[in-house]
Amino acid sequence: MIRQTVPFFGVSSMADSLSHYVDHLGFTLNHTWEPDGQIRWCCLQHAGGASLMMQQYYTEGPNARLYEGVLGEGTRFAYLEAPARDIASASEISDNWPFNGFASVADGDGYTLLARRDSLSASNQSLTAVVPILSVSSLELSQQFYVEGLGFEIVDRIAEGGKEALRVRRDVAEFVLHIRDGSLKRPGQGVGIFHMVDDAISLYREVTARGVKADEPYVGNRQWVAGLVDPDGYRISFESSTDEPEEKTLSEMELEQDKGAGGNARQLDTS
Length: 271
Known about the structure:
The chain is an alpha+beta fold and 271 residues long. Helix content is 20%, strand content 36%. It contains 4 helices and 15 strands. 31% of the residues are buried.
């Protein structure tokens, strides 16, 4: 079961990003990673439970990551009070379609959140979910990936003013997939879309059995992490808690289990 969707942003300045999301948008600092005495990674949470993660990328040294072009290209993230009713028809198509009536807020790196006006405040405790909005090249290919591959269900087909979108859902997770206007150079650059699940390995086995290509699960930060890439290049990950040691892979765990099962069988044979 998918329990939560959490966007991840690679940011150029953690201090500036914290000022934007905490001081101005009402998020609170929930977890941090401070390897050198500075916050390099953090998880933020709104009062209603909707979250996001950020990590400052290095611009020099062996771990440097230099992005070119637009960060978050092709992505927006709608923070919702009541997901079932927040998409509605409107007499005019807004820039934030299909979330007509929403306001957009971009940070210094260009990552964009959508929310109803004045809902992003520390006093609002009803923001419980986030829906990634992805600009895609083909609704047919996206449907094959998300519905036939990942097991999401189509809950809405939206067509207004010459625009088309699919809304898909699995458990509490949703995506809105819409046909892009023009071309994108680096879709989703700097962005990861994480799903907290009960069992990432079971989900990995389920989707790969359907033909979806996915990275081999490994343990990172006490989580099994299974990552994959959709047809447009957006990175999606599934995570679940584990006591296995850091950096262990699924194949290593399975090898240990096979050796253990073989030893038990030999003990039974000689008893």
